[in-house]
Amino acid sequence: DPWLADHLDELRASARRGIDALDGDTLCHSDVRADNMLITEHGAVSFVDWAHASRGSRVSDALQLLSSVEDPDGMLRVNERVDAVLEAHGLPHQVGTDVLTGILGFFVDAARWPYDPRLPSLGPHRRARRDSLLPLVRERWA
Question: What's the chain's Rg over C-alpha atoms?
């Protein structure tokens, strides 16, 4: 992507700040996404698949979940929701930009990894995550 290439040094610095911003002592699921959440008929939510649990920032899981929301037409207002999470915890909006930039960097790189026939859907998943997250990050950088 030409935009990524044109901003590579700044994106790397932002991603580094994003990694640093994830430091903390809160129990984090570290793989929060729709398929790791079970919702009962009464609306209670349980998180499953805790294989990547770790300690981190109190906003880590929320930002990771928001980074996975596909919102091509903007109806879900993901950017506003990212900022609302940060504001609720007294953090600057730049933290969200930096964390999302780091997540995007992972998917940009992972989308280029060789095809693994044992995991045939992994490559398409990584490319889809890259492609859905790039506009969100670009919007935050504008």
Answer: 15
